[in-house]
Amino acid sequence: MAILILGLVLFLGVHSVRIVADDWRTATRARLGAAKWKAGYSLLSLAGFIVLVWGFGLARQNPVVLWTPPVAMRHVAGLLTALAFILLTAKDIPHNGIKARLHHPMVLGVKVWALAHLLANGKLHDVVLFGSFLLWAILSFRAARRRDIAEGTVYPAGTTGATVTTVVAGLAGWAVFAFLLHGWLIGVRPY
């Protein structure tokens, strides 16, 4: 469990700089230059992700069951992860109405993904992993909305075509991951 926690601290710590030290981030990025900042950020993120995955794999070998969720929660989780994929997709498709309305759909997607997995899993390592991501997403979304207000950020209106494309692409990505890749990559077949 300690390796999982170390990976979470490193990965989510890097991704929390804008939450806890946005002024420092801005000054450091200006001093180093965007390319060096992104390179360092990417390397630390990758290292954290590797340690996180390794730690999660180790923690799964000696599970501590906290509760056994009802089978229905798997179906609820399936619906919520479909929504999460749509939100994650909305980050990258320009002029969609989801991003126009929600402003930070990727962080909301992480929030929904983490909640879905907390509902469907009752082992300690699951609670540590998904609970950490849920807490991070809540804090990150709040910080991003505050930045938007402070900076007077205005998001362009979305179009119906881009919004439909976002939903279709998100659902397609979810289907591929849920029915094919999740079992292969994670070792758990949700369906």
Write up this protein.
- This protein is mostly helical.
- It has 2 domains: 1-62; 64-191, no CATH class.
- The chain contains 9 helices and no strands.
- It has helices at 2-14, 17-20, 22-32, 34-61, 72-90, 97-102, 105-120, 124-151, 160-186.
- Helix 5 runs antiparallel to helix 7 (105-120) and helix 7 (105-120) packs antiparallel against helix 8 (124-151).
- The chain starts with a helix and ends in a 5-residue tail after the last helix.
- The mean pLDDT is 94.
Rg on CA atoms, Å: 18 Å
**Oligomer category:** single chain
Give the uncertain stretches in residue-range form: none
Overall geometric form: globular
**Strand count:** 0
Question: What does the secondary structure layout of this molecule look like, with pairings?
Answer:
Layout (H helix, E strand, L loop, with lengths): L1 H13 L2 H4 L1 H11 L1 H28 L10 H19 L6 H6 L2 H16 L3 H28 L8 H27 L5
Helix pairs in contact: 1-4, 1-8, 3-4, 5-7, 5-9, 7-8
Protein name: NnrU family protein
InterPro entries: NnrU_dom (IPR009915)
Keywords: Membrane, Transmembrane, Transmembrane helix
Task: Based on the model shown, name its key terms.
NnrU family protein, mainly alpha, 191 residues, NnrU_dom, 0% strand, membrane, 2 domains, transmembrane helix, 9 helices
